[in-house]
Amino acid sequence: MKTRTYIKKDVVERVYQDVRKEIGDVKLVSSIVNATFAALRELMIQDELESRIEIRNFGVFEVKKTKAKPKARNPKTNEIIYVPPRRKTHFKPGKLLQDSLKKPID
User: Fold this and answer.
1) How confident is the model over 59-80, as pLDDT tens digits?
2) How far from 21 is each of 10, 28, 74, 96, CA to CA, in Å?
3) How many other C-beta atoms can be found within 10 angstroms of the C-beta atom of residue 43?
4) Per-domain residue ranges for the chain?
5) Which CATH code is given to the segment(s) 48-106?
């Protein structure tokens, strides 16, 4: 079974279907969705080493700092390499989303 991939255009269409009575223009919805994603991205890449964006009833996006790995090994060459500390993203679903995903598949 092939995995369904949704893109930003799909998000815009879904939002437009929900708000088309209030906002009659799909281009306006598209710019709002783009601005939302841009704001989330900018908040996550700020200078702070760790940050957290909590969206109630959806989930929490976190940027966490990783530790340096001074003795990592390149599996191809078996060479010992140094991996510097970096930041990584983490998403924890909210209770509503988590409960929906826990339901058995029919």
Assistant:
1) 999 999 999 999 999 999 999 9
2) 18, 13, 56, 26
3) 14
4) 1-45, 48-106
5) 4.10.520.10
